[in-house]
Structures are given as C-alpha cells and as structure tokens.
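We were asked to recover a plausible sequence for a given structure. The inputs and outputs are reproduced exactly as logged, with field labels preserved.

PROBLEM: sequence recovery
POSITIONS: 112
GIVEN STRUCTURE:
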C-alpha cells in the first residue's frame, strides 16, 4: 500500500464503492483520525488538514501527539525461535537486537 506523507505521518487511501468516495485515516497511531474526498488530489489535501487539525487539537488540550514510529517494538516469536535466534546472533558476534535489525533491514530494502 502507498501512503500520503506529511509531517512524519502517513495516511491511507481507500475506496468506498457504495458511497462513491475515497477515504483514509492517519496510519500507525492509536488515535483515530479519518478524512474523505471525491478525488485523490482532494483526499491528499484532506489528509494534510487532518494532520494539522490533529496536531492543533493535541496542542490545545495539552495532549502529546502520538508518534507513528518510536523505533522499538515487541515481537512474540515463541521460545524455540527466540532461542535459535539468540544462538545464531551469538555465533556471528552480534546482539539479538542487532541481528534482528539487520534481517529486517535487508528484507525491507530488497523489497523497496
């Protein structure tokens, strides 16, 4: 999926065939912020307005805006795979974190 990008936020683009409109939301944050329009160009404008409105509302209410990505996340992979990954990382002289980071980086860059 391709996303709109603005001020560090990503917005989705979806089609509602029944209502004959486009809609989306700010992705990768726990707050729900939606927008809609009739054309892709209008939808991108609505996305940008939604981001600006979200940030302004957070400022006015004293709430910290949610960041799309913190740089860390938890992954549940089960005990057996966790053990295998930790051992493999040790074999090649890396921490488990660096080992996993390298694998994710390699895979995402090969599909960019």
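RECOVERED SEQUENCE:
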């Amino acid at each position: 999926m391709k996303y709109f990008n603005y001020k560090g936020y990503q917005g989705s683009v979806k089609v509602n065939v029944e209502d004959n409109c486009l809609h989306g939301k700010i992705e990768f944050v726990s707050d729900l912020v939606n927008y809609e329009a009739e054309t892709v160009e209008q939808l991108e404008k609505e996305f940008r307005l939604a981001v600006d409105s979200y940030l302004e509302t957070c400022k006015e209410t004293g709430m910290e805006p949610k960041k799309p990505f913190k740089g860390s996340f938890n992954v549940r992979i089960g005990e057996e795979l966790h053990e295998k990954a930790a051992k493999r990382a040790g074999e090649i002289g890396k921490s488990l974190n660096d080992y996993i980071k390298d694998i994710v980086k390699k895979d995402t860059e090969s599909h960019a």
